[in-house]
Design brief:
Elements lengths: L1 E10 L3 H16 L4 E8 L3 H7 L5 H9 L2 E6 L3 H4 L8 H12 L3 E7 L12 H4 L3 E7 L11 E2 L6 E2 L6 H17 L3 E6 L5 H14 L6 E6 H10 L6 E4 L1 H15 L6 E5 L4 E5 L16 H13 L4 H16 L20 H21 L1
Parallel strand pairs: 1-2, 1-3, 3-12, 5-10, 8-9, 8-10
Antiparallel strand pairs: 4-5, 4-11, 6-7, 11-12
Helix pairs in contact: 1-11, 1-12, 1-13, 7-8, 9-10, 11-12, 12-13
Length: 368
């Protein structure tokens, strides 16, 4: 039996609640596919600041680099939102982790389960059949650019949006390779009519397109892309964009899937991958058995596929989630007026239902 080392960063808020179920989903699915796991738990974000004074202790980065994959819950705490002048913040830990691990590519699938069509705020006929794969550049752009800061009197603040050619090329190549295996259409989203960094972005994508003649490239300004995602999401297949634009657009696209609680993501670089739900730490519901664990569970399916060389285990997890939704089970963020009240589940109950269904689906597959 193959044994994999997984570093678990529960983080803040609902992080521990959802990562607990991700861990159990991995163990359960892995048991049917010759996989076992060793889980190493480390601190990140507000929890790390409280314990060590740092948002990302050196031990955390070392454990992540030594692992086969990393599972992250969420980071953030309202204490920092209400005190914008604080120098040490949870988000610094996440940015430092991405940089330290070289995680330059964030992959976010926007896959709509048919059972959640009515959970979205958009019309069924608009979103049915949507299947988008976002490639967001993760270690460049305005979140990392220098100089940044404030003038001495505090009345002026500044950030720098900067991209180097190699940063654009490496994420763009990943997106082109994915587009080759899908519908062969790639939307590259920028703001080249205004921003110099976006003009470089577009130039690099155009140069690389010559190596992929089978892929149709459509350039789109970010403001138009934001509108088109709501107007006609099915026109998109693979979407390539920068750090800040990707952050905003993928959260917008979560409404297609019905909730942030349904979307998994993978952050990849040259070696160890990091897998996490795209939702935040949700401190307002932490500890109340209200969080949706499905995005984290689906993140472990991505982990199996992308980092653990165990796509069958990942598919088992996805099939189990699909079966749970088909059976009518919902957490509060994805229920609608037709949801049976007996099938509205809390975090613990939904997690347990997925584990039970993984076992059921696995046994059905054996019989088949």
């Amino acid at each position: 039996m193959s044994k994999k080392n997984i570093c678990v960063l529960a983080g803040d808020g609902i992080g521990k609640e959802v990562t607990d179920w991700g861990v159990q989903a991995l163990e359960t699915a892995g048991s049917y596919h010759n996989l076992s796991f060793n889980f190493q738990y480390e601190l990140l974000g507000h929890a790390a600041i409280q314990a060590t004074g740092e948002p990302m202790p050196a031990a955390t980065l070392a454990s992540c680099k030594a692992a086969d994959a990393v599972l992250l819950g969420a980071i953030g705490d309202p204490h920092y939102d209400l005190n914008p002048h604080l120098k040490v913040r949870p988000e610094q830990g996440l940015l430092a982790l991405r940089k330290g691990m070289g995680l330059f590519a964030n992959i976010r699938p926007i896959l709509l389960f048919d059972e959640l069509l009515t959970a979205s705020s958009l019309k069924e006929e608009i979103i049915r059949g949507t299947d988008i794969l976002f490639f967001r550049e993760l270690t460049g752009g305005i979140y990392f650019g220098q100089p940044r800061g404030r003038k001495e009197d505090g009345t002026v603040a500044f950030d720098t949006k900067i991209y180097a050619k190699y940063e654009v090329e490496r994420i763009a190549r990943m997106a082109f390779e994915a587009a080759k295996t899908r519908k062969k259409v790639l939307h590259s989203v920028d703001k080249a009519n205004v921003l110099e960094s976006s003009r470089l972005w577009r130039e690099v994508v155009q140069e690389l397109a010559a190596e992929y003649p089978e892929v149709m490239v459509i350039h789109m300004f970010v403001d138009n892309a934001a509108m088109q995602l709501i107007k006609d999401p099915k026109q998109f297949d693979v979407v390539l964009t920068g750090n800040m634009f990707g952050d905003i657009l993928t959260d917008e696209a979560s409404q297609i899937a019905g909730s942030l609680g349904m979307l998994a993501s993978a952050s990849l670089g040259n070696e160890v991958g990091l897998f996490e739900p795209i939702h935040g730490s949700a401190p307002d519901i932490a500890g109340q058995n209200l969080a949706n664990p499905l995005a984290t569970i689906l993140s472990t399916a991505l982990m199996c596929d992308r980092s653990l060389n165990a796509p069958a285990a990942g598919q088992l997890i996805v099939d189990a989630v699909d079966a749970v939704l088909k059976a009518g089970y919902r957490t509060r963020d994805i229920m609608d007026q037709n949801t049976d009240t007996d099938k509205i589940l809390g975090t613990q109950e939904m997690g347990a239902q997925v584990l039970k269904t993984i076992n059921t689906v696995a046994k059905q597959n054996v019989l088949a």
